[in-house]
Amino acid sequence: MANRSTPRILFATAELAPLARVGGLAAASAGIVGELRRQGVEVELVVPDYFGTPLEDEEVRPITHIPQWFQPAYARRGTLPGVGQITLVETLGIRKPHPYTDQWGNGWFDNDARFIGFGAAVAALCEASSPDILHLNDWHTSAAPAYLWPAPPTVLTIHTLGYQGRTNSNWTFGFWHWWERYLHGGDCNLLAGGIRSADLVVAVSPNYAREILEPDMGFGLDGILRDKGDRLVGILNGIDTAEWDPSTDAHLPRRFDVDSLADRAASRAEVFRRFELSPTDGALVTVVSRLVHQKGIDLLLPLAGQLAERGARLAILGSGERGLVDAIQSTATGHAGVVGFVDGYDETLAHQLFAGADLFAMPSRFEPCGLAQMQAMRYGALPLVTDVGGLRDTVVDAALAASTGFVAPAVSTEALAATLDRALGVVADERRRTAMQRRGMAIDWSWSAPVAEHLAWYERLMSATGTSA
């Protein structure tokens, strides 16, 4: 039972690991909710019922206080193993085999209706339970304030600003409140409305909170974000340090810790086998990523020749845009034994790629927070990143005293080539490499500190509105 001196939170998200995992939103949602609950906070966790997932001790009730075009609507409350208490919401059309896209990668034609309906259901649940804080995430939940009055103090976390839920402006005629907040650039823009309605907007890293105030990274919303003033803050995400722990990781052929780094060699050997890489004493560079333009993997591919000249190898695991997948496959074919590629996602292989790598490449064009660079450091892989978003907040370049990795000064193949050359030199120096590995492995990437920041803001918002528990 939660201590009543702590706030009661209704936390709504479109993704939650391991139930519905597409991107970083799933891991971030699971991480913050899990840590809030560990700290004794009462959290009602609300997620779309995409798959009809069975729950233990399930209770079902209809949701009626939403527009009729989203009905029938139901809330199933129960316990999901590995997650705990959860409320799964079904509104008209929400149940699909994938949260957002069909088998060809195209967005479902009714995604606007699906997630506006989900937002309306979140508002109805909020009215019924009267939480101290309503915590929304990204555009998928941003319609909730349009159906809620009065609203509790509302927090909106922006995980990726580029996805905004833009749709036909006619949708605003069906909103019950604040319809004008959702009009932006002639469209109904759900994220714009959520930002305007929120008492606090959280970006998932301090540097990303600064970047999105500028036109080139604001995706058309930089103006309304600047209007938030000090109610836009950056709080760095954490990672699940129990799942990502090389000393206990069952996915690894040999576990290790900061004092047994030599045991990483077993994972390296497995990566060479799975990716059919030619034997070498040179560096192993790995990538675990969604294969989309944002991640900048295309900028890395022209460096295959440089890797071959230096006796290094590159292993890439991921899936995504067809054109990028084809380009990676072509590079792997043209540099057989130097570049290896597995199309898809394999949890065991992902862990082994972190554990076996000398360098972990993450050349993102933009990166709100990034989790993989933290996971890599936890496993002794030195991240090679671009100087954007949360990558700037988490990776200290080798030129500095507290170095943990390598930061390319620009998002370009040329900058990556120079940084890779520098990184390969450091990796070959066992003393420097080991010191950097140990520093990265010693950092606390858990959710403890981020959740403490969230709790401080919850209390501040509640005090400002006279709703403090």
Task: Tell me what the structure shows.
- The structure is a single chain.
- This protein is α/β, with parallel strands linked by helices and about 475 residues long.
- It has 2 domains: about 10-240 and about 445-465, Rossmann fold (3-Layer(aba) Sandwich); about 260-440, Rossmann fold, CATH 3.40.50.2000.
- Helix content is about 35%, strand content about 20%.
- The chain has 16 helices and 18 strands.
- The protein has helices at about 25-40, 110-130, 190-195, 205-210, 215-220, 220-225, 265-275, 295-300, 305-310, 320-335, 345-355, 370-380, 390-395, 415-425, 430-440, 450-465; strands spanning about 10, 40-50, 55-60, 75-80, 85-90, 135, 155-160, 165, 185, 185-190, 200-205, 230-235, 285-290, 315-320, 340-345, 360, 380-385, 405-410.
- The protein has a 9-stranded mixed β-sheet, with helices on both faces. Strands 15-14-13-16-17-18 form a 6-stranded parallel β-sheet, with helices on both faces. A 3-stranded antiparallel β-sheet has the order 8-10-9.
- Helix 7 (about 265-275) packs across helix 11.
